[in-house]
Structures are given as C-alpha cells and as structure tokens.
Amino acid sequence: MSKTRIMLADDHTLFRQGIKTLISAEQDMEVVGEASNGGDAIEKANEVRPDVVLMDIGMPGLSCFEATRQIKKNRPETKVLFLTMYDDEDYLVEGMEVGASGYVLKDSPTQQLIAAVRDICRGGSYLSPRMLSQLVDDFRTRVKSATRLPRFATLTTREREVLKMLAEGQSVKEIACNLNLSVKTVEAHKFNLMRKLDIHNKAQLVQYAIQKKIIKIPNLVPEEA
C-alpha cells in the first residue's frame, strides 16, 4: 500500500517533531520533508514532491500565502493544509484564495488532523469545526443585516493606518518599525486590507487612497520665480 507523502512547513522544530511522531503512527502516511520558512517550503516541495503540505501561518521570510501560491503553481496536484494557531477568518479566506484545501487549528484533537489529511487527499476540503462554526455565525449575521457597510468602513483602525503609510510609499519594513509591529503582522494587515478593498497592486492602492482623501495629490506645479 502506497503511503501519503507529507511535508511539514513550520518554524518551530519541536512542533514539527511532534507532528512527525503523530503521522508516523499512521500506517498510510509518512513525513518526507521539513521546512522552517516559506522559501524553503517551495524548494523542498519541488524536491520531495509531497502529496500534502502542512503549512504554518506566520513563519519568517516569505509569506505562507505566497509560498502556498507558488507550491500550487509548481505542483497543482499537491494539497496544502494550513495548520495554525490563528482562528482568524481573514487568514482562512486568504488561504483558500491561494489554493489551500483545508484549515486546521493547532489545538485540534489529533484525529481531526489525520481526518483532514485523508479528506483532502480524496479531493475534498476540511475546516476545523470551530472555524466552520464561526463562518456559519458570520453568515447568519450578514443575512440578518439590512444594510451593508461600505468597504472602507470594514477596515480596522490599524488597517487604515497601514493603508495610508503604504500609499505614501513606505515599505512593509518601514511601517513595522514606525508602528512598532513585526513585519509579519504588517504583512497580514496589508493582505487583509487589499482583500477587503479588492485592490491587487500598488497603483490601485494609491489611487484608492487619493479618492478617499486618505492622502493628498502632490502639487506638481512649479512655483513662479
């Protein structure tokens, strides 16, 4: 019987070792590779050609979402399952948009993880019950709502700060330094605000910021001598 080939992408060595031990106990699964950041995950996936990648959110370096996008581009048949501590709907949506097949929380029972791997290998998808419950509750709330907020109104205060600073030309690292946040946190805010506003590049972001008067158009008319 051929075994499901699994690759682990997580920056915590002890956590990877624990998951590896759990998977090794299953007769139909084996761990064929490990990576500690997004860039390494892409390279390792190309090397070991796994059936499933268990992908952490929040690893250093390249975004886990971009890593997933690249892995799916290189090997569409490889399934990606996010295994994370974040019960965040924005992360869930972003993960599904880049091609992930499931989203499992790290505090889930072992059998949920094993079931998730088997489900996505059969072509299905899997969400942790807690995440599924949150989505259902959110859907019910939206259905009951008589009015819909404008997109800008859905941004958090921090997302608006990041939007303004990005539109002004600051890099993610500069914003992280100015706001005393980690680069990973700023990247997450950037992903969220661009998704909420349906913005896909820097030019659109600047144009939106000007339209909403978040930033002013620079005066390019030279002063008279």
What's the short story on this structure?
The chain has 10 helices and 6 strands, in the order E-H-E-H-E-H-E-H-E-H-E-H-H-H-H-H. The protein is α/β, with parallel strands linked by helices.
Could you walk me through the main structural features you see in this protein, from its secondary elements to its overall organization?
By secondary structure, the protein is of the alpha/beta class. Helix 3 (64-74) links the parallel strand 3 (52-55) and strand 4 (79-84). Helix content is 51%, strand content 13%. The chain folds into two domains: 4-135, Rossmann fold (3-Layer(aba) Sandwich), CATH 3.40.50.2300; 151-211, Winged helix-like DNA-binding domain superfamily/Winged helix DNA-binding domain (Arc Repressor Mutant, subunit A). A six-stranded parallel β-sheet has the order 2-1-3-4-5-6, sandwiched between helices. The protein is globular and about 65 Å long.
Q: Structural class of the secondary structure composition?
A: alpha/beta
How would a crystallographer describe the biggest sheet? 6 strands, parallel
**SS summary, helix count:** 10
In CATH terms, what is the architecture of the largest domain?
Answer: 3-Layer(aba) Sandwich
- The succession of helices and strands, N to C, reads EHEHEHEHEHEHHHHH
Question: What percentage of the residues does DSSP assign to strands (E)?
Answer: 5-15%
CATH superfamily of the largest domain: Response regulator
End-to-end C-alpha gap: 84 Å
